[in-house]
Amino acid sequence: MTYETKPPVDAVDAVDPVAQARALRALHVPGRPLVLPNAWDPASARLVVAAGALAVATTSAGIAWELGLPDGERLDRDRALDAVARIAAAVDVPVTADIEAGYADETPDIAATVQIVLAAGAVGVNIEDALYGDPERDAATPLRPAGDQAARLRVARGAADAQGVPLFVNARVDTYWKSVGDPATRLARTLERAAAYLAAGADGIFVPGVRDPDEIRALADGVDGPLNILAGPGLPTVPELAALGVARVTLGSGLARAAHSFVRSAAREALTTGTYEALTGAMPYKEANTLFPHP
């Protein structure tokens, strides 16, 4: 049986960022989650839309790997958002961009990032509170102080509002992802940060790394906004997450990693056994070539 995550929707003007942003907001419904298989290039974006996705979310990890870099704030802003622009240009649905920590060392510079995001054609962002770059510091203090992160979100909100676009700001709380503190207090820490981020202007809360259904339900009940969960093998299914009150389900770097795993296994087969069975289910050339119209 197919699980219908959303009813049919009217077409949205692909060149109107306000309409796109409003459409993205309307798709965040607790109990009827927006499912986003994350894309990293125009082809993956078109494939997920063809599969039925009503919006496209980018994966910073997938984009970084595509550009020959590791994930974790190693991309510069221009290269990262150029990739987002190419993805947004390839689809007619709303696009939300994973901008890691905002590609800005200083809080005021978040405004420039948001302006470039909007110019790239995206109408949503993920902004995370994890710290990267200094292993010793990050081990001792894995997350940005909540007050500092709230200030960054406030700048992002103000920059979008100044452009007149109701950008969907998805504030990522990395307490679970980074295993911060005592597991017994992690839920309370997460809810505290979520409340501060929503008060600063965030629209939704993303908590990657949480797996326990009871904790997911507690988060959905305790967060005063749409809750986004990172899904994958071993986690509750989309219908189960819907029953827990989740409003958005993303696959993160999962699709990109699966694609790269396929390349590895198919290459190994050809180079070891000399066979090509892994390619049996490959998309036909003509079908792949029609992902993009001829100029």
From TrEMBL:
Any Pfam family: PEP_mutase
CDD domains, per database record: ICL_PEPM
A single GO BP: methylation
Keyword Transferase: yes
GO molecular function terms noted in the UniProt entry: methyltransferase activity
Keywords attached to this entry: Methyltransferase, Transferase
Name of the featured protein: 3-methyl-2-oxobutanoate hydroxymethyltransferase
Species in which this protein is naturally found: Streptomyces uncialis
